[in-house]
Structure formats: C-alpha cells, structure tokens
Design goal:
Helix content: 25-40%
Number of strands: 20
Shape: globular
Strand order of the largest sheet: 6-7-8-3-9-10
Low-confidence stretches: 102-109
Number of domains: 2
CATH superfamily of the largest domain: P-loop containing nucleotide triphosphate hydrolases
Number of helices: 9
CATH topology of the largest domain: Rossmann fold
CATH architecture of the largest domain: 3-Layer(aba) Sandwich
Largest sheet: 6 strands, mixed
CATH class of the largest domain: Alpha Beta
Structural class: alpha+beta
Strand content: 35-45%
C-alpha cells in the first residue's frame, strides 16, 4: 500500500536517513520512537508536505514522490487536531468534502450524518471546537479525516494530549475505524502501550533512521541491539559467553558468575543476554518454578508502579530487575534486604551480539 524507498531528506539541523518501509493494505502500522526521532517529519513526507532530497514514496503502486498532498488520497490527523475554530462540528467535517468537489451537497449531508452517528457525535453538530473536550475534538478530527474517504490515514501523536481513560476509549475507536472503513493506518507515537495495543506491525525510529521493523512481540521481546532493548523497557542486560550450544539451547556463562540457558542459535562467542522484568518470577526458594534459569538475589529496592511493584536485586557482580504484582509482593512479604529466588524460562531470554 505504501512503499518508502531509500528516502533521504536533510533540513540541515536534522535529516531522515535512508528510510525503507513497506506498509501493507489494511495494516495498522505504528512508527514508534523517542521525542526528536523524526517520526512526524517522516509522516509529513509520506503525506507530501515535504519532497525528499532523494528516494521515493509510492502509494498503491504509483510513484507520488513529487505529488502535492491533495492528490495522494491521504487523510491526516494532527497532534493538536487542527480544527477550524470558526466552524462548528458539522462544518469542520464537511470542509474536506467541499475541497474534494466530487460529491453532491445531498451526498455530503448524508455521509457527514452517517459518520457523526457512527462516532456518536451527532449531538455536537452545532458546537464549536473551543467548547469541546479533548476526546470530543479528537473524534471530530477523525470524522473529518474519514469523510473524504481516504485510502490511507496518517495520525501524528493523536492521543498524546488526552487523559488515560479517554486514551483507552479512543484507542478502541481507532481500531473500529480501521475495521469499518478498511483504511490503512500509519500512526506515529512515543507511547509504547499505544503501539502494543494498536499495531499490526511497528517500526522503531531513532535519530532519523528506522532501527527495526516487526510485530509487537518481535519489537518488545526480540530487539536487535542493546539500545533498542533499553528503549522498549528491557532493563536486564547481562554480558556473557556462549560455552555450549546443543540443539538450539545455548549455555551462557554470564558476568555474574552464573550460567543462563537460552533458546538461541549463537555459537561460542561473546553475547548480551536480555530478559524482560515481567518474565522473571520471584519465590522464597528453589523448586517453586519449573523454569530452567535460577538466580539468587538480595533485594536492594522496591518501587510501586500503579498495580505493579518493581523489584531490584543484587545478584553478585550485577543487578536484576523483576516486575511483579502487588499481590505477589504481599504474599511473599518482600522487604528490602530479603534474599529471593529469581527464575525465568529459557524461551524468555533473548540473545544479541
């Protein structure tokens, strides 16, 4: 549906460098990255607001690299919604249809009414943007974008200014829009929960480059390097050497002095072992879990994060972090200074060079 080929664009103070992406028809594709990664600039280049210095943008098999935005059949939803303050809700939604000049007034009225009914904003038809909540403004922005029947909808941090409850609700609305209208969605965000909930696939972007593309599971559990692991919240990075590998089970001597087993094809060489905090199970003694990897640690820090507790442990020459429920913390009666048994499966260990 969308292909970006060897795209390079230099703004002097920042550049998009050798971007290659292939986004499938009907896919919910998320571009995830920290602030300043170049996500919005890439989205705006796909939309046609910028012409790349080199490289190409293809949409539905056509080279649109130098075409203006209005000829790309692309809808765009900005972070600040960009509603016209002097137009009411219905007029805002009709605005794109008037520019399109391809529908009769009667068709316009019908399509706008249907979309407003579907998004449950018909009662807001005569209200002005300044009188709407953030969630209501976002729904109007979605309605305006969908009304022109785009084949692609580009969303720039669309939920960043909303409270948690409204975010949760609108994430479901965005998924519903994709399913109902069959639109290919490209969504830019720095919010990892947003990416996990919405994406069919994710591209992680840093410093103007695409670092990795994959499913949510691949991105969050199998990052390609330590920098990506740190970004997606894999706090446990241990260095070691593969001492043996039998039928895809690597035996790794780690710098803590212990041994970790991992599902990996790496031969005898220096590696980094990555373990997500939520994949670690804590218990009072060995034998409680059937997991192959067992480490004994002493708790140095307990930090409550909403319904979860982050447990930091000293495991000798390194640290290990586990993320457990508060219920688990209470049942184990964990205290700072306690010795605990940390276990995790070989399938939970990701190995990189």
């Amino acid at each position: 549906m969308i292909e970006v080929r060897d795209l390079y664009k230099d703004w002097k103070e920042f550049a998009l460098k050798d971007i290659n992406l292939a986004i499938e028809r009907g896919e919910y594709f998320v571009i995830l990255g920290p602030t300043g990664a170049g996500k919005t600039l890439l989205l705006e280049t796909i939309a046609g607001f910028y012409i790349p210095d080199r490289g190409e943008v293809w949409i539905e098999g056509d080279d649109v690299t130098i075409l203006p935005p209005e000829r790309r059949r692309v809808g765009f939803i900005y972070q600040d919604y960009s509603l016209f303050p002097h137009l009411n809700v219905e007029q805002n939604i009709k605005f794109g249809l008037k520019l399109k000049k391809s529908s009769t007034p009667d068709t316009n009225r019908k399509s706008v009414k249907e979309i407003m009914d579907w998004l449950s904003i018909s009662h807001l038809a005569n209200r002005y943007p300044a009188t709407l909540s953030g969630g209501e403004q976002q729904k109007v922005a979605i309605a305006r974008a969908v009304a022109i029947e785009p084949s692609i909808l580009l969303l720039d941090e669309p939920l960043s200014a909303l409270d948690l409850r409204t975010k949760d609700y609108l994430r479901e609305e965005l998924k519903r829009v994709k399913e109902e209208f069959g639109i290919t969605m490209v969504h830019v965000t720095h919010d990892q929960t947003e990416a996990l909930v919405l994406a069919d696939r994710i591209a992680v972007m840093m410093k103007g480059r695409i670092m990795q593309v994959g499913t949510p599971h691949e991105i969050f559990n199998k990052p390609l390097n330590e920098e990506l692991a740190d970004f997606v919240g894999i706090e446990n990075v241990l260095r070691g050497v593969v001492r043996n590998n039998v039928k895809g089970i690597a035996e790794i001597e780690v710098d803590t002095g212990g041994t970790i087993f991992a599902v990996s094809e790496y031969p005898a060489e220096a590696v980094k072992v990555l373990i997500r905090p939520e994949d670690i199970i804590l218990s009072e003694s060995r034998g409680v879990s059937s997991a192959r990897n067992v480490m004994i640690g002493r708790i140095t820090e307990l930090q409550d994060i909403g319904p979860l507790t982050r447990v930091k442990m000293d495991i000798g020459r390194s640290e290990l972090v586990a993320l457990i429920t508060k219920q688990s913390r209470e049942s184990l009666r964990l205290r700072k200074g306690d010795e605990v048994c940390a276990t995790f499966k070989a399938t939970s260990v990701h190995v990189v060079r």
